[in-house]
Structure formats: structure tokens, C-alpha cells
Design a protein that fits this description.
By secondary structure, the protein is α+β, with helices and mostly antiparallel strands. The chain is built from 9 helices and 7 strands. The chain is about 45% helix and about 20% strand.
């Protein structure tokens, strides 16, 4: 994140809570602000985007708790756990081999993944609804947490893990009346670029809830 854009951000509020083993003290200022933003009216769509980007690969034997996502980012893990807590118990656990895991109880796992799948499949409809500005902000908020932020003067780029996720970000940006372009795939993902200094500032301000 560039020094200019960090300076542009409004003052950040102090952390209200700490999730197990995902200390907010480890987070960069922008990550902390995104993680602590209000959940908004579409928490399930935001969670579904995070699940698509961070869900573990392969089959895992059910245990007392089952991972919905795994990541090296404390901010992404904390945000996803907060979003999932609107549906069920969710926790962040640090593991030696897999980094941070966002877990739900084994009994709730199938119900939660069905809900996330439904939200993801409905993303086009949700983003086209008249009141969907909050949905679009949620998608971009989670993308900045899961895909990182590469910011330069008047430009902000995140990386999505798939063409579908990249196109979802382009559609969400259009809903926000902000120009975004899905660039050619590169090693490490599918870059999506938002241009315009005023638009970048507006996105960061609204996504962090620091208006």
C-alpha cells in the first residue's frame, strides 16, 4: 500500500475485539480497518467471496471443528470469522502447517457451505439489485483482504484466484460507478485494476467504514 493512500485513509478506530490466535496487532493499518468495518447488509455474499478465495483444497475428514478457509492473513481470517458468526459459531485457529484456519463446528459445516454456495451462485442477482451498493463494497473489501493490495498513484490492483472472482469484482466496481479492468492472468492470480484517484479514495473510505 502506498504511503499516499495510507495517508488518505481516515483515522482508524481502535480494535474492539480479538479473535483467538489472530492478533489484530499483526495487521497493517489498511487490513485492520477492512477487518473491523461494519458487516453491512450482505455479510453472506462477502463471506462467500472469501470462501471461494480461501477454502481448503481436497476432502478433509470431519472432526469436532471443520475448516471453511485457511490463510496466512490474520485480517482475512478475522473478517471471515466475523461474517460467519452471523450464521453460526466460528473461530480462528493458528496451526503450524496450515497457518490460520477459519473453523465452524462439524455439525454446522454442511449447512454453512450450502449457504455460501447459494450466495455465490446468486452474486449476479445480488449485485444488480437496487440496494446492492453494500454488496459491491463487501466483495471488494474481501478481495483486498484475500488478494492483497497493490496501490500506486490513482490506481489500485487486487488479485483474484479465478476468472469468475475477477469478473465479479469488475461487476461490483460497475455497481459502484467505478472503472475496473480484469487484466491478463499472471502467476499468482487474476489481477483486477481500479483506476482514478478519486475512485480509489472513495472505495477505501467506504470499504473501511471510516467515512
Amino acid at each position: 500500500m502506498s504511503a499516499t493512500l495510507l495517508t488518505d485513509l481516515p483515522p482508524l478506530a481502535a480494535a474492539a475485539t480479538t479473535l483467538a490466535d489472530a492478533s489484530r496487532a499483526e495487521m497493517a493499518p489498511l487490513d485492520r480497518a477492512l477487518s473491523q468495518a461494519p458487516l453491512g447488509a450482505f455479510p453472506l455474499l462477502e463471506a462467500a467471496f472469501g470462501w471461494q478465495e480461501l477454502r481448503p483444497s481436497g476432502w478433509h475428514r470431519p472432526a469436532a471443528a471443520t475448516a471453511i478457509a485457511q490463510t496466512s492473513s490474520p485480517a482475512a481470517a478475522a473478517r471471515l470469522a466475523s461474517l460467519l458468526s452471523t450464521l453460526t459459531w466460528a473461530n480462528v485457529v493458528r496451526t503450524e502447517r496450515e497457518g490460520l484456519r477459519v473453523e465452524v463446528s462439524a455439525g454446522a459445516y454442511n449447512r454453512i457451505t450450502r449457504a455460501l454456495t447459494g450466495a455465490w451462485r446468486s452474486r449476479t442477482q445480488l449485485l444488480s439489485a437496487p440496494e446492492s451498493r453494500q454488496a459491491a463494497l463487501g466483495v471488494w473489501r474481501m478481495a483486498m483482504l484475500t488478494g492483497g493490495v497493490d496501490a500506486h498513484a490513482g490506481q489500485l490492483t487486487v488479485r483474484a484466484s479465478s476468472p469468475a472472482a475477477a469478473q465479479t469484482l469488475v461487476a461490483a466496481a460497475a455497481r459502484l460507478n467505478m472503472p475496473a479492468i480484469a487484466d491478463r492472468p499472471r502467476e499468482g492470480g487474476h489481477p483486477v485494476r481500479l483506476t482514478g484517484r478519486a475512485q480509489v479514495y472513495q472505495l477505501l473510505t467506504e470499504a473501511t467504514g471510516q467515512r
